[in-house]
Design a protein that fits this description.
The chain contains 6 helices and 8 strands; from the N terminus they run αββαααβαββββαβ. By secondary structure, the chain is of the alpha+beta class. Strands 3-8-4-5-6-7 form a 6-stranded antiparallel β-sheet, with helices on both faces. Strands 1-2 form a two-stranded antiparallel sheet. Helix 2 packs antiparallel against helix 3.
């Protein structure tokens, strides 16, 4: 006598197996690697705003998103209330120092390794683009692709070929910065 398998069991099993189908399969077990590796929920992404000098605050918006991603919600809210307008590497470093925020940055060093480290450790980083006139968050960097989160359009990620992104970043003084707090948990090994 054959035992009938309940339909509910089959549906649950099917849902589990298919859960990994949308992304990169991890080891054939149905688990997927998160993509991008820095994947802040929409609710914690900070859009750009105009400061009191009528300048965009992209550097600060990016910092707010990265601080929230790293679990520093109180500091992110303080940063949002306190800072605005355009900011460059030295100016931002002075503000981070004033607020006792641990950070790492590179500028004019052409240090692609910094970008790889920031993504590998799931911190992400703010990166200068458009000749240094705009900052966005680098949320993914692999051998082929760069994933970007623009504070002017926080509802989606922008995917560009790695080499095209790096060329743009290098042409923008190769400035990148990230807070140094707890990153998200590591992804399973590939």
């Amino acid at each position: 006598m054959r035992k009938r398998v309940p339909t509910r069991f089959i549906l649950v099993l099917l849902a589990f197996v298919c859960a990994g189908c949308a992304g990169q399969d991890h080891g054939g077990c149905g688990l997927t690697r998160e993509r991008p590796v820095v994947n802040p929920p929409a609710a914690i992404r900070q859009g750009n705003w105009y400061g009191d000098k009528d300048e965009g605050s992209c550097v600060h918006a990016t910092m707010v998103t990265l601080l929230r991603w790293q679990g520093r919600y109180g500091m992110a809210d303080h940063w949002r209330r306190t800072y605005g307008n355009a900011s460059g590497p030295e100016d931002l470093a002075a503000k981070l120092d004033k607020e006792h925020i641990r950070y790492a940055y590179t500028s004019e060093q052409r240090d692609v390794g910094f970008l790889e480290w920031a993504c590998r450790t799931r911190r992400g980083c703010g990166v200068a683009i458009q000749g240094g006139q705009h900052m966005i968050a680098l949320v993914h960097l692999d051998a082929r692709w760069a994933g970007l989160l623009d504070d002017n359009a926080t509802d989606h990620y922008i995917w560009v070929p790695r080499e095209r992104f790096i060329a743009e970043w290098l042409a923008s003084d190769s400035w990148a910065v990230t807070p140094l707090y707890a990153p998200a948990a590591p992804l399973p090994p590939s």
